[in-house]
Amino acid sequence: MDERSGVGEAELIGIGASLAAVLAAGDIIALRGGLGAGKTTLTRGLLSALGLEEEAPSPTFAIVQPYAPPEVRLSLTHVDLYRLDGPDQAEELGLDDYLSDGALVIEWPDRLGERLWPDALLIDIAVDEDGSRRLTAHVPPAWKGRWSLT
């Protein structure tokens, strides 16, 4: 488990960019944290580093927001499960289908219940009293040696 404290908005964007540098088809990044913690900011950094020129919208209302070449260099689907009531609704989204030629970033992965993929990189984002973020990464074997939060 990696941990990093005192993270500001610019660093969240940088962490997203560092993930983009190693991201491959089939990868899953799960982001946990309260409202306003910075999950979408981190994802915007990732998408920008993948080549997205405009600012990515939050997928809170769309739930699933896909990006594909030539807009980005690797297909990436940004998913926000906040509005779902449970794992059954998440199952209906067919998220596995996006992994054959791209990667997933999932906000609010707890809405999947026990269904989170075992090789998913899980990043917890907590907001400290001073407004900075504390990130904790649970790095599965598939990500070890490829990416580190520290």
UniProtKB/TrEMBL annotation:
Report if keyword Transmembrane helix is assigned: yes
Q: Which domain of life is it from?
A: Bacteria
Q: Which UniProt keywords apply?
A: ATP-binding, Cytoplasm, Magnesium, Membrane, Metal-binding, Nucleotide-binding, Transmembrane, Transmembrane helix, tRNA processing
Broad class of where this protein is predominantly found: cytoplasm
Q: Name one GO molecular function term.
A: metal ion binding
* InterPro entries according to UniProt: P-loop_NTPase (IPR027417), T6A_TsaE (IPR003442)
Q: Name one GO cellular component term.
A: cytoplasm
Membrane-crossing ranges are 12-31
GO biological process annotation, one example: tRNA threonylcarbamoyladenosine modification
Q: Which Pfam families match?
A: TsaE
Entry keyword Transmembrane: yes
Q: Where in the cell is it found?
A: Cytoplasm
Which NCBIfam families does the entry link to?
A: T6A_YjeE
- Which family does the record claim for this protein? Belongs to the TsaE family.
Q: What is this protein called?
A: tRNA threonylcarbamoyladenosine biosynthesis protein TsaE
